[in-house]
TrEMBL record:
Domain of life, per lineage: Eukaryota
Catalytic center residues: D153, H229, S559
Subtilisin-like protease fibronectin type-III domain boundaries: 677-773
Domain annotation Inhibitor I9: ranges: 41-120
Similarity comment: family membership: Belongs to the peptidase S8 family.
Keywords, ordered alphabetically: Hydrolase, Protease, Secreted, Serine protease, Signal
Name of the gene encoding the protein in the UniProt record: LOC107403801
Organism (species): Ziziphus jujuba (Chinese jujube)
Pfam families: fn3_6, Inhibitor_I9, Peptidase_S8
Name of the molecule in the record: Subtilisin-like protease SBT3.5
Cellular compartment(s): Secreted
Residue intervals of the Peptidase S8/S53 domain: 144-598
């Protein structure tokens, strides 16, 4: 073959070009593969549908993606779902740059990455760090195995799956209780989970002064729960594993209590009969029997109202009954009340109690409101299955008032609406007082013939179920909707069904309704002690009757927060069998969290949103895993509590009546400061200007035998703190050490409470003691 130099050079040049072209194609393919690999699914939310035709909405989505990606083919490859019925939007594979670019499109409301979520019904337990999924994955805490939680409440619905005893250990040998029979409740309703039940009604019967009659009532003369409150709290504390639990499809997933392998003992003292309630006589009998029966923990979601009675006053049955329970080694956990956000409204403030505040979790139930002008607003609702996906006439309650001068129509109070004008309409109501809520407003609207409610109110946590579709919105959204009503000749609206959304809200936040400290009776005792989930908590519920059509319900209140702490207390007790109630309380308080899901400080909802302080959350938000290993604890004995009562100035006879033991307060005790009780907190209501005050605490090492702890001080503004010693050294022979904290005011004027902390750390444990101090110029309150 002729291989002339010219031809050879040409062929060589062509080969180089082909090689370069091949490399270029390869690089392009690699870059495409790389771009595709960096694409993640994002949801592009566009809000209200602009088009009535779903096909046209879908076409608009493809057009938008084509504009972004450069071709119809690229758009078709990228898109996964087109949301075109309830709202407008789409899910598509996008790079981070593409997601940021499309977020700038004028039609786009929000772009957010797709996240994998586990289906959990009692979301609160995962939220606070307890991830039980079955009895087979038992952690070192054994899920409360071997402990008995007594629940003093409104009874139990024994058929609930949450009280199934599959996989439960035999009944503990310490148990001495019974399964008391009664109306629609017999001994077969108890099992290895629900080991006992009693009911007490004599106190109520005496109060009513007539024979008890359950005819026409949903309650029962037995431990069976007709109200639902007790069933809910019991299953929250120690319910067994239930897969697929939900409330009408909302919050679907795995339900279980905090201590799912703990046993339950039920003490019914609260009744729905004849307006019922929970009387002191019945409460005290329940405490008495619980002590006898051998419970380890008591959960009491019951309380008094302000003003509070003294601890030695026989009218505070919870303080009295719990004193005896704690003296026997039983940890008593109580709800703090639902009278927030007003200061000084906290209830169940006895120093031997664990008093619980309520917080939110990261779950919500968003519901869209579509107006006739194609605007979409969002509220929240839990009324699954009641909403019809169609437009209806919309009106404002004031427009349909029976009396044009009647101000009660604004918040849809009973009897204020014109039935002729309300019939067949969705009614917008504006809350004016705390006497009206969304449930009562919906009842008023329904009675007037209305078919739905949009209820605008100042921020208040917790949702209620209504007889007709109802959606709660804030004042801003309510005002926008009212503006539309006023401008439109024929206003219409459509209420969508709610959905479950998890992880998209900063939590925890202190619930607006949660009662706040300081204690109105003993301000030197920090209350509440701890905060726990108490907003829209899903747990077991009676499944009978029109009102009880679901076997699980979403309820809110410090009543719901209380059993969360009781469940964690059972976990601690199952690991540390010999710990006193004070030790368990100390572990909870000193290890509690101060931050939310975003890493910022926990906020408290109220008249305004603010950073939560110890009067909102006590030591902080419950942290179960850290509470199991607190490092150090503050212990308190029965004798310490008696000494404390003497320092308050109570008479020896009064304290004898409470303690059921002959007490004689010495003159030294009567002169002693009430600040000496060995609490895991320091509260000084009366630090005088230009004066020093010293508080002593004693700590017990429950961590590593040889440990060295250093003090870290965060003094409240206007106060200096000196701690002696600043280092605590524990060893085999020294397991208890005391320290003195001296407080000096640098303020020149009297002020409100200021907050700080004293934390002891060994490099691993953080033992945090919250501090609250009020500097005074004049003696502004009495101790008793």
């Amino acid at each position: 073959m002729d291989r002339s130099p010219a031809i050879w050079k040409f062929a060589k040049k062509m080969n180089h070009s082909l090689v370069l072209l091949s490399l270029l194609i390869l690089l392009i393919n690699i870059s495409v593969i790389f771009v595709e690999a960096t694409r993640n699914v994002h949801i592009v939310y566009l809000g209200m549908n602009k088009y009535a035709d779903p096909a046209r909405t879908k076409k608009s989505h493809h057009k938008m993606l084509s504009t972004l990606l450069g071709s119809k083919e690229a758009a078709q490859r990228s898109i996964l779902y087109s949301y075109r019925h309830g709202f407008s939007g789409f899910a598509a594979r996008l790079t981070q740059y593409e997601a940021e670019s499309i977020a700038d499109f004028p039609e786009v409301i929000q772009v957010f990455p797709n996240r994998i979520h586990k289906l959990h019904t009692t979301r609160s337990w995962d939220f606070i760090g307890i991830h039980h999924s079955s009895p087979k994955n038992a952690l070192p805490d054994n899920m409360g195995k071997g402990t008995i939680i007594g629940v003093i409440d409104s009874g139990v619905w024994p058929e609930s799956e949450s009280f199934n005893d599959e996989g439960m250990d035999p009944i503990p040998s310490q148990w001495k209780g019974i399964c008391q029979e009664g109306e629609q409740f017999n001994s077969t309703n108890c099992n290895k989970k629900l080991i006992g039940a009693r009911w007490f009604i004599k106190g109520l019967q005496e109060q009513i002064e007539r024979p008890i009659n359950t005819t026409g009532s949903e309650d029962y003369l037995s431990a069976r729960d007709g109200i639902g409150h007790g069933t809910h709290t019991a299953s929250t504390a120690a319910g067994y594993f239930v897969r697929g639990a939900n409330y009408g499809g909302l919050a679907e997933g795995l339900a279980r209590g905090g201590a799912p392998l703990a046993h339950l003992a039920i003490y019914k003292v609260c009744w729905g009969i004849d307006s019922g309630g929970c009387t002191d006589a019945d409460l005290l009998k329940a405490f008495d029997k619980a002590i006898h029966d051998g419970v380890d923990i008591l959960s009491v979601s019951v309380g008094n109202e302000i003003p509070l009675y003294s601890y030695v006053d026989h009218r505070d049955s919870i303080a009295m009954g719990s004193f005896h329970a704690v003296a026997k080694g039983i940890t008593v956990v109580c709800s703090g009340g639902n009278d927030g956000p007003i200061s000084g409204t906290i209830e169940n403030t006895a120093p031997w109690l664990i008093t619980v505040a309520a917080t939110t979790i990261d779950r919500a139930f968003p519901t869209s409101i579509t107006l006739g002008n194609n605007q979409t607003f969002w509220g929240q609702s839990i009324d699954i299955g009641k909403h019809k996906p169609e437009f209806s006439a919309l009106t404002y309650s004031e427009r349909i008032a029976l009396d044009s001068t009647d101000d009660f129509a604004k918040d849809c109070e009973s009897g204020s609406l014109n039935a002729t004008l309300a019939a067949g309409r969705i009614v917008l109501c504006f809350s004016k007082t705390d006497l009206q809520n969304i449930e009562s407003a919906s009842t008023s609207v329904k009675e007037a013939g209305g078919i739905g409610v949009i209820y605008a109110q100042f921020h208040e946590d917790g949702l209620g179920s209504c007889d007709i579709p109802c959606v709660k919105v804030d004042y801003e959204v309510g005002t926008h909707i009212l503006s539309y009503i006023r401008k439109s000749r024929s206003p219409i609206a459509k209420l969508s069904s709610p959905n479950t959304a998890i992880g998209k809200w900063i939590s925890p936040r202190v619930a607006s309704f949660s009662s706040r400290g300081p204690s109105s009776i003993t301000p030197a005792v920090l209350k509440p002690d701890i905060a726990a989930p108490g907003v829209d908590i899903l747990a077991a519920y009676p499944s009978v009757g029109i009102q009880h059509s679901h076997s699980y319900a979403l309820l809110s209140g410090t009543s719901m927060a209380c059993p969360h702490v009781a469940g964690v207390a059972a976990l601690i007790k199952s690991v540390h069998h010999n710990w006193s109630p004070a030790a368990i309380r100390s572990a909870l308080v000193t290890t509690a969290s101060q931050t939310g899901t975003d890493g910022a400080s926990i906020t408290a909802q109220g008249l305004t949103s603010k950073e939560a302080d110890p009067f909102d959350i006590g030591g902080g938000h419950i942290n179960p895993n850290k509470a199991l290993d607190p490092g150090l604890i503050f212990n308190i004995t029965r004798e310490d509590y008696i000494h404390y009562l003497c320092t308050l100035g109570y008479s020896s006879a009064s304290i004898t009546g409470l303690a059921n033991t002959k007490i004689s307060c010495t003159s030294d005790q009567k002169r002693a400061s009430g600040l000496g009780l060995n609490l895991p907190s320091i509260t000084i209501p009366d630090l005088k200007m230009a004066a020093a005050l010293t508080v002593t605490r004693t700590m017990t090492n429950v961590g590593h035998i040889n440990s060295v702890y250093k003090a870290v001080i965060r003094a409240p503004p206007g106060v200096k703190i000196k701690v002696e010693p600043q280092i605590l050294r524990f060893n085999l022979s020294t397991q208890n050490l005391s320290f003195r904290a001296t407080f000096f005011s640098t303020q020149k004027v009297q002020g409100d409470y200021k907050f700080g902390s004293l934390t002891w750390t060994d490099g691993y444990h953080l033992v945090r003691c919250p501090i609250a101090i009020r500097v005074i110029r004049y003696q502004s309150y009495a101790h008793v």
